[in-house]
Amino acid sequence: MMSAKVYPAKAFGFKSDSIAPDKSISHRSAMFAILAEGESRIENFLRAEDTLNTLKIVGHLGAEITDDGSVITIRSHGIQESSEILDCGNSGTGMRLFCGLLSSAEGHFILTGDEYLKRRPMKRVTQPLRSIGAKLDGRNNGDLAPLSIRGASLKAFDYTSPIASAQVKSAMMLAALRSNGVCTFKEPELSRDHTERMLRGMGARVEINGLETKIWPLEKPLQPLHIRVPADPSSAFFFAVAAAITPESSAIIEGVTLNPTRIEAFKVLERMGAKITYSLEDERYEPIGTIAVEYAPLKAVVVEDNIAWLIDELPALSIAMACAEGKSVIKNAEELRVKESDRIKTVVDNLNLCGIETEEYSDGYAVKGGELKSAVVNSYGDHRIAMSFLIAGLKCGMKVEDIECINTSFPNFFELLGMCGKVEK
Ligand code: S3P
Asked: What whole-number percentage of the chain has pLDDT above 90?
Protein backbone atom coordinates (compact mmCIF):
# COMPACT_ATOMS: atom_id res chain seq x y z
CA MET A 1 0.00 0.00 0.00
CA MET A 2 1.53 3.30 -1.07
CA SER A 3 1.35 6.58 0.80
CA ALA A 4 2.23 10.21 0.01
CA LYS A 5 3.32 13.17 2.09
CA VAL A 6 2.55 16.78 1.24
CA TYR A 7 4.28 19.76 2.87
CA PRO A 8 2.74 23.18 3.63
CA ALA A 9 2.90 25.34 0.50
CA LYS A 10 3.91 28.94 -0.11
CA ALA A 11 1.91 31.11 -2.53
CA PHE A 12 1.66 29.55 -6.01
CA GLY A 13 0.27 30.38 -9.44
CA PHE A 14 -1.08 27.15 -10.91
CA LYS A 15 -1.95 26.95 -14.59
CA SER A 16 -2.73 23.79 -16.51
CA ASP A 17 -4.28 22.51 -19.71
CA SER A 18 -3.60 18.94 -18.69
CA ILE A 19 -6.09 18.27 -15.93
CA ALA A 20 -7.45 14.72 -16.33
CA PRO A 21 -10.01 14.45 -19.17
CA ASP A 22 -13.61 14.11 -18.04
CA LYS A 23 -14.44 10.67 -16.66
CA SER A 24 -18.20 10.76 -17.33
CA ILE A 25 -17.71 11.82 -20.96
CA SER A 26 -14.88 9.33 -21.56
CA HIS A 27 -16.98 6.37 -20.33
CA ARG A 28 -19.88 7.47 -22.52
CA SER A 29 -17.69 8.05 -25.61
CA ALA A 30 -16.46 4.47 -25.57
CA MET A 31 -19.88 2.98 -24.82
CA PHE A 32 -21.94 5.03 -27.24
CA ALA A 33 -19.51 4.33 -30.10
CA ILE A 34 -20.70 0.73 -29.96
CA LEU A 35 -24.18 1.88 -31.04
CA ALA A 36 -22.81 3.82 -34.03
CA GLU A 37 -22.22 2.87 -37.64
CA GLY A 38 -18.79 3.98 -38.91
CA GLU A 39 -15.69 5.05 -37.08
CA SER A 40 -15.88 7.10 -33.89
CA ARG A 41 -12.84 9.24 -33.06
CA ILE A 42 -12.12 10.20 -29.47
CA GLU A 43 -9.36 12.66 -28.61
CA ASN A 44 -8.16 13.23 -25.06
CA PHE A 45 -9.84 10.07 -23.72
CA LEU A 46 -9.17 9.68 -19.99
CA ARG A 47 -6.39 7.11 -19.67
CA ALA A 48 -7.20 6.13 -16.11
CA GLU A 49 -8.16 2.73 -14.70
CA ASP A 50 -11.95 3.28 -14.67
CA THR A 51 -12.30 4.44 -18.26
CA LEU A 52 -9.63 2.08 -19.65
CA ASN A 53 -11.69 -0.77 -18.15
CA THR A 54 -14.73 0.53 -20.03
CA LEU A 55 -12.73 0.73 -23.26
CA LYS A 56 -11.48 -2.83 -22.76
CA ILE A 57 -15.05 -4.05 -22.25
CA VAL A 58 -16.13 -2.30 -25.45
CA GLY A 59 -13.35 -4.30 -27.16
CA HIS A 60 -14.58 -7.56 -25.56
CA LEU A 61 -18.03 -6.74 -26.96
CA GLY A 62 -16.61 -6.93 -30.47
CA ALA A 63 -15.65 -3.35 -31.34
CA GLU A 64 -12.39 -2.73 -33.22
CA ILE A 65 -10.27 -0.25 -31.29
CA THR A 66 -7.12 1.53 -32.42
CA ASP A 67 -5.07 3.90 -30.32
CA ASP A 68 -2.19 5.98 -31.69
CA GLY A 69 -1.52 7.47 -28.27
CA SER A 70 -3.52 10.58 -29.06
CA VAL A 71 -6.71 9.53 -30.88
CA ILE A 72 -8.72 6.41 -30.07
CA THR A 73 -10.88 5.09 -32.89
CA ILE A 74 -13.75 2.67 -32.33
CA ARG A 75 -15.53 0.78 -35.11
CA SER A 76 -18.49 -1.23 -33.91
CA HIS A 77 -19.71 -4.56 -35.23
CA GLY A 78 -22.83 -4.45 -33.08
CA ILE A 79 -22.75 -5.79 -29.55
CA GLN A 80 -21.33 -9.31 -29.56
CA GLU A 81 -21.48 -11.93 -26.84
CA SER A 82 -18.14 -12.19 -25.04
CA SER A 83 -16.32 -15.16 -23.58
CA GLU A 84 -14.74 -12.76 -21.07
CA ILE A 85 -16.07 -11.63 -17.70
CA LEU A 86 -16.54 -7.89 -18.12
CA ASP A 87 -14.57 -6.22 -15.31
CA CYS A 88 -15.60 -2.63 -14.51
CA GLY A 89 -12.93 -2.32 -11.79
CA ASN A 90 -13.88 0.47 -9.38
CA SER A 91 -16.42 2.16 -11.63
CA GLY A 92 -20.09 2.48 -10.71
CA THR A 93 -20.68 4.48 -13.89
CA GLY A 94 -19.20 1.70 -16.00
CA MET A 95 -21.26 -1.04 -14.37
CA ARG A 96 -24.58 0.82 -14.28
CA LEU A 97 -24.41 2.10 -17.85
CA PHE A 98 -23.38 -1.32 -19.17
CA CYS A 99 -26.49 -2.75 -17.46
CA GLY A 100 -28.63 -0.46 -19.63
CA LEU A 101 -26.61 -1.08 -22.78
CA LEU A 102 -26.48 -4.88 -22.48
CA SER A 103 -30.07 -5.48 -21.31
CA SER A 104 -31.24 -5.53 -24.92
CA ALA A 105 -28.14 -7.11 -26.52
CA GLU A 106 -28.26 -10.60 -27.90
CA GLY A 107 -26.38 -12.98 -25.60
CA HIS A 108 -25.30 -13.53 -22.03
CA PHE A 109 -22.94 -11.17 -20.19
CA ILE A 110 -21.29 -11.11 -16.76
CA LEU A 111 -20.28 -7.80 -15.17
CA THR A 112 -18.00 -7.65 -12.16
CA GLY A 113 -15.80 -5.15 -10.33
CA ASP A 114 -13.30 -4.69 -7.51
CA GLU A 115 -13.99 -5.27 -3.79
CA TYR A 116 -15.47 -1.74 -3.45
CA LEU A 117 -17.74 -1.89 -6.49
CA LYS A 118 -19.04 -5.31 -5.41
CA ARG A 119 -20.40 -3.62 -2.27
CA ARG A 120 -22.23 -0.78 -4.09
CA PRO A 121 -26.00 -0.86 -4.81
CA MET A 122 -27.05 -1.88 -8.31
CA LYS A 123 -30.78 -2.26 -7.66
CA ARG A 124 -31.26 1.37 -8.68
CA VAL A 125 -30.68 0.19 -12.27
CA THR A 126 -31.49 -3.52 -12.16
CA GLN A 127 -34.97 -2.95 -10.69
CA PRO A 128 -36.27 -0.45 -13.30
CA LEU A 129 -34.59 -2.43 -16.08
CA ARG A 130 -36.23 -5.65 -14.87
CA SER A 131 -39.58 -3.87 -14.80
CA ILE A 132 -39.33 -3.33 -18.59
CA GLY A 133 -38.37 -6.93 -19.33
CA ALA A 134 -34.60 -7.05 -18.77
CA LYS A 135 -33.21 -10.32 -17.46
CA LEU A 136 -30.64 -9.20 -14.91
CA ASP A 137 -29.56 -10.88 -11.73
CA GLY A 138 -26.93 -10.72 -9.03
CA ARG A 139 -26.39 -11.32 -5.32
CA ASN A 140 -29.05 -10.01 -2.94
CA ASN A 141 -31.75 -10.33 -5.58
CA GLY A 142 -29.96 -8.32 -8.24
CA ASP A 143 -28.48 -5.62 -6.01
CA LEU A 144 -24.83 -6.67 -5.86
CA ALA A 145 -22.26 -7.57 -8.50
CA PRO A 146 -21.24 -9.84 -10.08
CA LEU A 147 -24.28 -9.32 -12.28
CA SER A 148 -25.47 -11.56 -15.05
CA ILE A 149 -27.43 -10.23 -18.00
CA ARG A 150 -29.30 -12.19 -20.62
CA GLY A 151 -30.32 -9.75 -23.38
CA ALA A 152 -34.09 -9.52 -23.87
CA SER A 153 -36.66 -7.40 -25.67
CA LEU A 154 -37.49 -4.31 -23.69
CA LYS A 155 -40.82 -2.53 -23.29
CA ALA A 156 -41.28 1.22 -23.59
CA PHE A 157 -41.47 2.91 -20.17
CA ASP A 158 -42.60 5.93 -18.22
CA TYR A 159 -40.29 5.79 -15.19
CA THR A 160 -39.92 8.21 -12.30
CA SER A 161 -36.61 7.70 -10.52
CA PRO A 162 -36.61 8.20 -6.74
CA ILE A 163 -33.02 9.55 -6.94
CA ALA A 164 -31.34 12.21 -9.09
CA SER A 165 -28.73 9.99 -10.67
CA ALA A 166 -27.16 10.40 -14.11
CA GLN A 167 -26.10 6.78 -13.94
CA VAL A 168 -29.70 5.59 -13.55
CA LYS A 169 -30.92 8.07 -16.18
CA SER A 170 -28.22 7.01 -18.64
CA ALA A 171 -28.82 3.29 -18.11
CA MET A 172 -32.53 3.79 -18.77
CA MET A 173 -31.86 6.01 -21.80
CA LEU A 174 -29.59 3.35 -23.31
CA ALA A 175 -32.32 0.77 -22.73
CA ALA A 176 -34.90 3.12 -24.28
CA LEU A 177 -32.89 3.36 -27.53
CA ARG A 178 -33.57 -0.35 -28.15
CA SER A 179 -37.05 -0.61 -26.61
CA ASN A 180 -40.36 -0.97 -28.44
CA GLY A 181 -41.72 2.60 -28.06
CA VAL A 182 -41.22 6.18 -26.90
CA CYS A 183 -39.93 6.26 -23.30
CA THR A 184 -40.12 8.90 -20.57
CA PHE A 185 -37.68 9.26 -17.67
CA LYS A 186 -38.29 11.68 -14.79
CA GLU A 187 -35.94 12.55 -11.93
CA PRO A 188 -36.40 14.60 -8.74
CA GLU A 189 -33.55 17.03 -9.55
CA LEU A 190 -31.65 17.39 -12.82
CA SER A 191 -28.55 15.18 -12.86
CA ARG A 192 -25.59 15.68 -15.23
CA ASP A 193 -26.79 15.66 -18.84
CA HIS A 194 -23.87 14.32 -20.91
CA THR A 195 -25.87 11.34 -22.17
CA GLU A 196 -28.60 13.62 -23.53
CA ARG A 197 -26.08 15.94 -25.22
CA MET A 198 -23.96 13.18 -26.72
CA LEU A 199 -26.79 10.93 -27.93
CA ARG A 200 -28.49 13.93 -29.55
CA GLY A 201 -25.21 14.89 -31.20
CA MET A 202 -25.04 11.34 -32.58
CA GLY A 203 -28.52 11.62 -34.08
CA ALA A 204 -30.80 10.08 -31.43
CA ARG A 205 -34.13 11.74 -30.78
CA VAL A 206 -34.11 13.02 -27.21
CA GLU A 207 -36.38 15.78 -25.89
CA ILE A 208 -35.84 17.43 -22.52
CA ASN A 209 -38.55 19.26 -20.69
CA GLY A 210 -37.39 20.31 -17.23
CA LEU A 211 -36.94 17.14 -15.20
CA GLU A 212 -38.53 14.95 -17.86
CA THR A 213 -36.57 13.33 -20.70
CA LYS A 214 -38.27 11.62 -23.65
CA ILE A 215 -36.28 9.12 -25.71
CA TRP A 216 -37.27 7.52 -28.99
CA PRO A 217 -36.05 4.06 -29.99
CA LEU A 218 -33.37 4.06 -32.71
CA GLU A 219 -34.63 3.53 -36.23
CA LYS A 220 -31.08 3.35 -37.56
CA PRO A 221 -27.61 3.17 -35.95
CA LEU A 222 -26.22 6.33 -34.39
CA GLN A 223 -23.78 8.49 -36.32
CA PRO A 224 -20.18 8.09 -35.17
CA LEU A 225 -18.89 10.30 -32.41
CA HIS A 226 -16.14 12.83 -33.12
CA ILE A 227 -15.19 14.28 -29.79
CA ARG A 228 -12.35 15.88 -27.90
CA VAL A 229 -13.00 15.13 -24.23
CA PRO A 230 -12.73 18.32 -22.13
CA ALA A 231 -10.98 18.43 -18.75
CA ASP A 232 -12.93 17.04 -15.80
CA PRO A 233 -14.27 19.80 -13.52
CA SER A 234 -14.28 17.44 -10.54
CA SER A 235 -10.54 16.85 -11.03
CA ALA A 236 -9.94 20.56 -11.70
CA PHE A 237 -11.76 21.39 -8.48
CA PHE A 238 -8.94 20.00 -6.30
CA PHE A 239 -6.71 22.77 -7.64
CA ALA A 240 -9.47 25.36 -7.27
CA VAL A 241 -9.62 24.47 -3.56
CA ALA A 242 -5.82 24.45 -3.33
CA ALA A 243 -5.73 28.07 -4.59
CA ALA A 244 -8.72 29.12 -2.48
CA ILE A 245 -7.05 28.00 0.79
CA THR A 246 -3.50 29.24 0.08
CA PRO A 247 -3.01 33.02 0.52
CA GLU A 248 -1.97 34.93 -2.61
CA SER A 249 -2.42 31.87 -4.82
CA SER A 250 -4.34 31.27 -8.02
CA ALA A 251 -5.34 28.39 -10.30
CA ILE A 252 -6.13 28.64 -14.01
CA ILE A 253 -7.70 25.56 -15.52
CA GLU A 254 -7.96 25.41 -19.30
CA GLY A 255 -10.10 23.30 -21.63
CA VAL A 256 -12.59 22.31 -18.95
CA THR A 257 -16.30 21.63 -19.48
CA LEU A 258 -18.45 24.55 -18.29
CA ASN A 259 -21.60 22.41 -18.36
CA PRO A 260 -23.85 23.94 -15.64
CA THR A 261 -24.67 20.46 -14.28
CA ARG A 262 -20.96 20.05 -13.49
CA ILE A 263 -19.58 23.34 -12.14
CA GLU A 264 -21.85 23.97 -9.18
CA ALA A 265 -19.00 23.37 -6.69
CA PHE A 266 -17.11 26.32 -8.22
CA LYS A 267 -20.25 28.43 -7.69
CA VAL A 268 -20.32 27.40 -4.02
CA LEU A 269 -16.62 28.24 -3.62
CA GLU A 270 -17.46 31.65 -5.09
CA ARG A 271 -20.26 32.06 -2.53
CA MET A 272 -17.65 31.30 0.14
CA GLY A 273 -15.60 34.27 -1.07
CA ALA A 274 -13.12 32.92 -3.64
CA LYS A 275 -12.78 35.01 -6.80
CA ILE A 276 -13.72 32.90 -9.81
CA THR A 277 -14.14 33.71 -13.50
CA TYR A 278 -15.38 31.49 -16.32
CA SER A 279 -14.57 32.12 -20.00
CA LEU A 280 -16.41 30.18 -22.66
CA GLU A 281 -14.14 29.35 -25.61
CA ASP A 282 -15.66 26.45 -27.50
CA GLU A 283 -18.82 24.40 -27.86
CA ARG A 284 -18.77 20.77 -28.98
CA TYR A 285 -21.41 18.59 -27.34
CA GLU A 286 -20.49 20.65 -24.23
CA PRO A 287 -19.56 24.28 -23.48
CA ILE A 288 -15.78 24.35 -22.91
CA GLY A 289 -13.50 27.08 -21.56
CA THR A 290 -11.22 28.32 -18.78
CA ILE A 291 -11.90 28.65 -15.06
CA ALA A 292 -9.67 30.98 -13.03
CA VAL A 293 -9.69 30.93 -9.23
CA GLU A 294 -8.01 33.40 -6.89
CA TYR A 295 -7.48 33.17 -3.14
CA ALA A 296 -9.64 35.23 -0.80
CA PRO A 297 -10.51 34.58 2.85
CA LEU A 298 -13.37 32.04 2.90
CA LYS A 299 -16.58 32.13 4.93
CA ALA A 300 -18.96 29.30 5.82
CA VAL A 301 -21.74 28.18 3.50
CA VAL A 302 -24.85 25.98 3.53
CA VAL A 303 -25.12 23.52 0.65
CA GLU A 304 -28.53 21.91 0.26
CA ASP A 305 -29.66 22.44 -3.36
CA ASN A 306 -28.53 21.02 -6.71
CA ILE A 307 -26.65 18.32 -4.86
CA ALA A 308 -26.39 16.11 -7.96
CA TRP A 309 -24.41 18.92 -9.62
CA LEU A 310 -21.61 18.84 -7.04
CA ILE A 311 -21.84 15.42 -5.43
CA ASP A 312 -18.34 14.39 -6.59
CA GLU A 313 -16.75 17.64 -5.40
CA LEU A 314 -18.12 17.56 -1.83
CA PRO A 315 -15.02 15.91 -0.28
CA ALA A 316 -12.76 18.64 -1.74
CA LEU A 317 -15.28 21.33 -0.83
CA SER A 318 -15.13 20.06 2.77
CA ILE A 319 -11.44 21.01 2.87
CA ALA A 320 -12.39 24.57 1.85
CA MET A 321 -15.09 24.48 4.58
CA ALA A 322 -12.48 23.43 7.15
CA CYS A 323 -10.46 26.55 6.24
CA ALA A 324 -13.47 28.93 6.23
CA GLU A 325 -14.71 31.14 9.02
CA GLY A 326 -17.84 29.68 10.65
CA LYS A 327 -19.85 26.46 10.45
CA SER A 328 -20.67 25.08 7.00
CA VAL A 329 -23.43 22.53 6.47
CA ILE A 330 -24.10 19.97 3.72
CA LYS A 331 -27.64 18.50 3.57
CA ASN A 332 -29.68 16.30 1.20
CA ALA A 333 -26.52 14.43 0.25
CA GLU A 334 -27.36 10.87 1.38
CA GLU A 335 -25.95 9.66 -1.98
CA LEU A 336 -22.50 10.30 -0.49
CA ARG A 337 -23.01 7.13 1.57
CA VAL A 338 -22.88 4.90 -1.52
CA LYS A 339 -19.97 6.39 -3.47
CA GLU A 340 -16.52 4.77 -3.75
CA SER A 341 -16.53 4.97 0.08
CA ASP A 342 -19.17 6.19 2.55
CA ARG A 343 -18.00 9.77 1.98
CA ILE A 344 -19.97 11.19 4.91
CA LYS A 345 -18.05 8.95 7.27
CA THR A 346 -14.67 9.11 5.54
CA VAL A 347 -14.69 12.93 5.27
CA VAL A 348 -15.86 13.42 8.86
CA ASP A 349 -13.42 10.86 10.35
CA ASN A 350 -10.46 12.32 8.44
CA LEU A 351 -11.35 15.94 9.26
CA ASN A 352 -11.57 14.96 12.95
CA LEU A 353 -8.06 13.50 12.70
CA CYS A 354 -6.98 16.92 11.36
CA GLY A 355 -8.41 18.65 14.45
CA ILE A 356 -11.56 19.98 12.76
CA GLU A 357 -14.92 19.77 14.57
CA THR A 358 -17.72 18.12 12.60
CA GLU A 359 -21.28 16.87 13.06
CA GLU A 360 -22.44 13.82 11.13
CA TYR A 361 -26.03 13.57 9.79
CA SER A 362 -27.69 10.77 7.88
CA ASP A 363 -27.72 12.98 4.76
CA GLY A 364 -24.63 15.16 5.21
CA TYR A 365 -22.45 16.85 7.79
CA ALA A 366 -21.37 20.14 9.32
CA VAL A 367 -17.78 21.39 9.33
CA LYS A 368 -16.63 24.04 11.78
CA GLY A 369 -13.85 26.05 10.19
CA GLY A 370 -10.65 26.09 12.24
CA GLU A 371 -6.98 25.35 12.04
CA LEU A 372 -6.26 22.25 9.96
CA LYS A 373 -3.56 20.18 11.63
CA SER A 374 -1.13 17.77 10.05
CA ALA A 375 -2.25 14.13 10.37
CA VAL A 376 -1.94 10.66 8.90
CA VAL A 377 -5.20 9.79 7.14
CA ASN A 378 -6.42 6.88 5.04
CA SER A 379 -8.15 7.11 1.66
CA TYR A 380 -10.37 4.08 2.35
CA GLY A 381 -9.63 3.13 -1.27
CA ASP A 382 -11.50 6.24 -2.48
CA HIS A 383 -9.67 8.43 -5.02
CA ARG A 384 -11.52 11.62 -4.11
CA ILE A 385 -10.82 11.20 -0.38
CA ALA A 386 -7.11 10.65 -1.13
CA MET A 387 -6.84 13.74 -3.36
CA SER A 388 -8.91 15.99 -1.05
CA PHE A 389 -6.66 15.33 1.94
CA LEU A 390 -3.48 15.70 -0.13
CA ILE A 391 -4.79 19.17 -1.07
CA ALA A 392 -5.42 19.86 2.63
CA GLY A 393 -1.74 19.00 3.13
CA LEU A 394 -0.79 22.15 1.18
CA LYS A 395 -2.17 24.06 4.15
CA CYS A 396 -0.80 22.06 7.09
CA GLY A 397 1.21 19.07 5.87
CA MET A 398 -0.40 15.63 5.55
CA LYS A 399 0.37 11.96 5.04
CA VAL A 400 -2.27 10.06 3.06
CA GLU A 401 -2.19 6.26 3.00
CA ASP A 402 -3.51 3.97 0.27
CA ILE A 403 -3.13 6.33 -2.67
CA GLU A 404 -3.18 3.82 -5.56
CA CYS A 405 -6.90 4.58 -6.04
CA ILE A 406 -5.96 7.98 -7.51
CA ASN A 407 -5.15 6.10 -10.73
CA THR A 408 -8.87 5.34 -11.21
CA SER A 409 -9.51 8.94 -12.28
CA PHE A 410 -6.45 11.22 -12.25
CA PRO A 411 -3.13 9.54 -13.16
CA ASN A 412 -1.16 12.82 -13.46
CA PHE A 413 -2.47 14.25 -10.15
CA PHE A 414 0.91 14.12 -8.38
CA GLU A 415 2.71 15.85 -11.24
CA LEU A 416 0.21 18.75 -11.02
CA LEU A 417 0.20 18.76 -7.21
CA GLY A 418 3.98 19.22 -7.39
CA MET A 419 3.35 22.57 -9.14
CA CYS A 420 1.67 23.79 -5.91
CA GLY A 421 3.94 22.40 -3.21
CA LYS A 422 6.43 19.73 -2.16
CA VAL A 423 5.18 16.12 -2.38
CA GLU A 424 6.93 12.85 -1.54
CA LYS A 425 5.69 9.37 -2.39
C1 S3P B 1 -21.68 9.94 -12.92
C2 S3P B 1 -22.76 10.28 -12.16
C3 S3P B 1 -22.71 10.53 -10.72
C4 S3P B 1 -21.27 10.76 -10.25
C5 S3P B 1 -20.30 9.78 -10.84
C6 S3P B 1 -20.33 9.86 -12.35
C7 S3P B 1 -21.88 9.67 -14.36
O8 S3P B 1 -23.23 9.42 -10.03
O9 S3P B 1 -21.21 10.71 -8.84
O10 S3P B 1 -19.00 10.05 -10.39
O11 S3P B 1 -20.92 9.68 -15.12
O12 S3P B 1 -23.04 9.45 -14.74
P13 S3P B 1 -24.83 9.26 -9.83
O14 S3P B 1 -25.43 9.46 -11.14
O15 S3P B 1 -25.05 7.90 -9.31
O16 S3P B 1 -25.19 10.30 -8.83
From this structure: 100
d(CA 95, CA 401): 27
Look at residues 168, 195, 228 and tell me which one is the last residue of a structural domain: 228
Shared domain for 137 and 275, answered yes or no, is no
Instruction: Give the count of domains, the chain.
Output: 2
For a ligand 1 pocket test, name from 117, 165, 313, 405 the mutation site with the most ligand atoms within 8 angstroms of its C-beta.
165
Q: How many CB atoms lie within 10 A of CB 218?
A: 17
Model pLDDT for residues 270-315, shown as the tens digit of each residue: 999 999 999 999 999 999 999 999 999 999 999 999 999 999 999 9
How remote is the CA of residue 136 from the centroid of ligand 1, in Å?
21
Q: Are both 254 and 218 inside the same structural domain?
A: no
Cβ atoms of residues 119 and 99 within 8 Å: no
Please count the residues of the chain.
425
* Residue 88 CA, ligand 1 centroid: distance in Å: 15
Structural domain of 286: 3-21+230-424
Cα–Cα distance, 123 to 102 (Å, whole number)? 16
Position in ligand 1 atom list of the atom nearest CA 166: 14
Q: How far is the CA of 93 from the centre of ligand 1 (A)?
A: 6
State whether 299 and 395 are in the same domain.
Answer: yes
The enclosing domain of 302 has a CATH number of: 3.65.10.10
Catalytic residue among 114, 312, 382, 402: 312
**Helix boundaries (H) for 34-83:** 49-60
For 181-203, what is the mean pLDDT?
Answer: 98
The closest-lying atom of ligand 1 relative to the alpha carbon of residue 339 is 9
Q: What does the mean pLDDT of the chain come to? A: 98
Residue-wise pLDDT for 142-189, tens only, equals 999 999 999 999 999 999 999 999 999 999 999 999 999 999 999 999
- Provide DSSP, 120-162: S--HHHHHHHHHTT-EEEEHHHHTEEEEEEE---B---EEE-S
Which amino acid, residue 392?
A
Q: Is 189 in the pocket of ligand 1 (CB under 6 A)?
A: no
Q: How confident is the model at residue 420 (pLDDT cuts 50, 70, 90)?
A: very high
Prediction pTM value:
0.98
Cα of 152 to ligand 1 centre, how many Å? 26
Amino acid at 415: E
Q: Give yes or no: 402 in active site.
A: no
**pLDDT, tens digit, for every residue of 338-391?**
999 999 999 999 999 999 999 999 999 999 999 999 999 999 999 999 999 999
